[in-house]
Amino acid sequence: MATSGPDPTVTGSTKVIDSHLHVWASPQEAADKYPYFPGQEPSLPGDVDFLLECMGEAGVDGALIVQPINHKFNHSLVTSVLKKYPTKFVGCCLANPAEDGSGVKQIEDLVLKGGYRAVRFNPYLWPSGQQMTNDVGKAMFSRAGELGVPVGFMCMKGLSLHVAEIEKLCVEFPSTVVVLDHMAFCKPPINDDEITVFSELLKLSRFPQVYVKFSALFRVSRIPFPYKDLCHPLSQIVSSFGANRIMWGSDFPFVVPECGYKGAKEAVSIVANQVPLSSSELEWIMGKTVMQLFQGQWLQS
């Protein structure tokens, strides 16, 4: 595939929207106004100017910004970006599972006043020994559904550790939309245990509120760019969920040293052509799904 110029298979009349990326302060911004959380100083540049440059070069029209751990529960940097570029970006805030229950109010404030339209559940931020299905987790998950904002799950240490919690929340709160970040961190299975876990991912399609991010391909592939070992997993996910419940995401800026931001977009077309997917299915994955999920945010060109 040519690496220059727009990709006709994913442009056309549908915008290309990145469903998963991060921004954080530049070192200067961190010193002046938006400090990093102690111990979470980034090792990569991830400021919004760099992001906009990458998006422009790759022909990406908009994105969902996921609050980075580098600023933890201080959302002021991402909020400033959302206010500056209201038609380009949507925000996904980070749920605070503090035992005092203050996380519910934080979600309300960020959604109702800060312009955020999604929430991220990071299970590794819950107090030791606690699960996302504890009273605080249920209260935040339920409130997200009432506010009409999806909840994204980061299963970095493996879906098998968290699938029972996700299923329980889906059953109890069917009106809350669920998004599984990075294919729920399921790599192409190569042994019986991994086959079982991947089948658990596919079984989550039985809940109509569950969506999958085909994102951070460099994290879930076992081989270098263009990550062709993801052809069969993508085929299975499309068969189970439908392309209209799958969305591409780059995981900027972590993807930049892996294959470049533009490469993150191109890899999806290369994998999709191998599956093969129809141009309509690819359009859903590259933008239509996330645009449907966040209606009114990115207008059709």
TrEMBL record:
MF annotations from Gene Ontology: carboxy-lyase activity; hydrolase activity
UniProt KW Lyase keyword: yes
Domain Amidohydrolase-related residues, every copy: 17-289
Keywords carried by this UniProt record: Decarboxylase, Hydrolase, Lyase
Pfam families: Amidohydro_2 (PF04909)
Domain of life: Eukaryota
PANTHER family: 2-AMINO-3-CARBOXYLMUCONATE-6-SEMIALDEHYDE DECARBOXYLASE (PTHR21240), CATALYTIC_ HYDROLASE (PTHR21240:SF19)
Family according to the record: Belongs to the metallo-dependent hydrolases superfamily.
Name by which UniProt lists this protein: 4-sulfomuconolactone hydrolase
